[in-house]
Amino acid sequence: MDDSYYLQQCLKLIEDKLPWGKCSTWTNQDFEILSEKISDSSGIFISYQTLRRLFGKVRTSDKYKPQLETKNALAIFLGYPSWRKFIEAHSPLTQTSSAAPEPEPPPVALPGEPVVHTVKKPPFLSRKVMYGFVFLSILTLAGMYYLYARFTKPSAKKVFLSGKYLKGFAPLTSVFNYDVSGIESDSVYINFGGDFENILLPKDKKTITVSYTKPGLYEIRIFAGGKTIAFERAHIMSRDWEGTVYHENGYYYLKDKNKLIHDGRLHLVPGEAEKGGIDIYMPHQKRSMVEYNHIQDYKVDGDNFSLETRIKNSPEEGGVYCYNSYIRVRGWNYGSRVSFTQPGCNSEAFVQFGEVLVDGKYTDLSSLGQDLSTWRVVKLVVKHKRAQVYIDNRPIFTTTYQNNIGPIKGITYRFKGYGSVDYLKLYNEKDELVYQDTFDQALPAPRSVGQ
């Protein structure tokens, strides 16, 4: 039977497992969270763009087939050790069996008579035959265990991965030297992070390169048998603010800051998105999003900082029904992020600091349902792993976390609708202003930090 049958079964089980309703209604945020859940359970990273392709949110060729490691990750998320085991469990041959004969009814005793059970004796077997059967059974089980370990688990031998040109401005080509010759599995993959697909890693090669065209933090992983066995990071910086308009079938990239500044604010110039064939004013484009990124090395501790900004997401300027407005401070290890929604739509809200992720689907985050049709001041304050979110100087959310976020490496805004940013200020643990931008075209560009 074609592999696509089992893939559709797998995707349907994932849809049923998640209490988010039909996958046709899932948002990009849902796919991002699912990507994190799969990575946490399997150790295999699947980008949210790949998940959108698998679930039919992006038009793809009928010939599109996910790689084995991607299917392994999906199976592990559902509780199976591998994709092969998932297929075995869901094969129609294993799910359909002939009806077993009904057991004979127990003998009925007459009053005062004892019940006599008769036991049929098994046919006679010689000791030699029995010993031979036991020996063959042990040999078969040992062989099955060897094959399972051979093809589903990586060898414990050392794996080497070392990268060059891991920090710089986009576009940047990073070079990775590796050695996976000691891994017994034939299925060893590398993923370069972001939206990159998994690539089968040739054992007879020692070097592989990748060109990063978009700024961001990228996690490079080598994995085999469903487990990450080597890890690197790349910090691809932007020289200034850069924009991306995401839509159902891809994205439109805006690198010229002058096209992102309008009326003294960070705001996509009307008509720019339309050049990429995208009209996010239209209701049918409700899944489109505008994102602004400033990726640099701010030399600020992600566990001790404060960020102040003023944002707006007005319906008159292209807001959509159930809009959201997202702010993310990207740490080297984890992120600090908050997603505000239109009041009444707070099931789509979420907030994260360190390893603590609070999802509005499972928690009452009505405090993050905010009217952003006018300018509102938002603050993120983190002191010694205690995090607070403020709006107009009023605290609306507080949490603590344990794991280190690491140094801050980037700041991201994302809006469903044409959102705007009036200003941004970033302070370090001593409350010293480290970076600011007022988005005034009359002023020189803000200084580049960490260079």
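(the above was protein one; protein two follows)
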Amino acid sequence: MKALRDPDCLLAEGLTAIRAQFKVPAAFPPVVEEAARKAAARPLSDHADRTATPFFTLDPASSTDLDQAFAIEAAGSDMLLHYAIADVPWFVADGDPVDTEAWARGETFYLPDGKAGLYPKVLSEAAASLLPDGPRAAVVFTTRVAPDGAVALQGVERAVIHSRAKLGYETATEDQLPAGFAELARRIAAAEDARGAARVDPPEQEVERDGAGHFTLRLRPLAEAERRNAALSLATNLAVADALFAAKTGLFRVMAGPDERAVARLRHTARAFALDWPEQASLAQFEKTLDPQDPRAAAFMLAIRRAGNGASYVPYKEGVKPWHAAMAATYCHMTAPLRRLADRYVIRAALSLANGQAVEAEVEAAFDKLGPVMGKSGARAGQVERAVVDLAEAAILAGREGQHFAAVVTQLDEAGTRIQLCDLPVVARTTARSVHPGDRIEVRLDTADPARRLVGFSRIA
């Protein structure tokens, strides 16, 4: 849960309980740490020297597990994006203790008070990270981006790079970023619009205490540099996905769009936040009008993310076109190998194909197994995230028992009546009767128990 921040550890007891409940690993076994230390010392021997190319990283200022670095080059009317990805496959061998532990974890788990990494820090925050303190092992993907934002993979190579600077989302200035950064992001965004993509970048949720000692929930929109950086990752993932699909191999990220019931709930949620969603506008069209600087729109963007049917991983299957509705494209994950297990194998496949080699049998076998593994870890990460949100919602409402809140009914089901508070990004349930989705009601807060991550409301009007 990267988004919810608790820098003063105000929710420490509840977070400890969440870690225990969902078995979030606290540390790596000694045998894994020892294997990682040995792997970190592995000399680089199959890497081209690209240290003369000016690469940069752009991440949260405090991050040290840096998966990506980028360089941009003009090529006539096209642009070349050189996207260096941490060469995790170089350090992690099939079947060694680090690999075995990674398969057990699946991904990095994020909580406000810290993360449980996929790999030990000696790799993820040192040897394999693209830090700017010296030459680093990378797999460099070169993607050609046309004026209309169309992308095509031009090459993949193992290389040694030297990042010129570790830039932060909130602190990076235009003069620090390479020429063409903004234009490249603009092209990729234009291609998204042309495809009808519905990718949502909701704000981050931050928990803090107000002057009265109560918890409050603040929404922080993504910085412009953060949005542009995400576009570079998207372009590379799309180009690699197309190349793998053409070669009849790969592991793809697929997702269906929100169904009619989910869209209907979202319309009620928009009403709760007094947002004007024209009846004739689709969800994708309405999304593009939202201003993340507006707290109401920002909260609605979070609701959109929660309304999706969920993404999953599927291997290549003859005659089936993998599709990601939010991206409106065939799509894969490969730009965050320090944080996601599956990315390491997609990188290996792309590296083999780009250099005229057959995809390794171990990689093809992994593609068939990774879907359930990533599904399980993703589900656990989702449970952790939901528990953290429940904890935060209970914390910000604690002490306000008895107060009245305006709400809108968004769904009726066997579990009761789901409501969206109008003045806070809080979704809850109540036992209101004789109501319909879209009804505006008034509720009283009866319970707000952070220890149980529980809130309870009753209808009063």
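Reviewer note on protein two: The CA atoms of residues 196 and 328 lie 6 Å apart.
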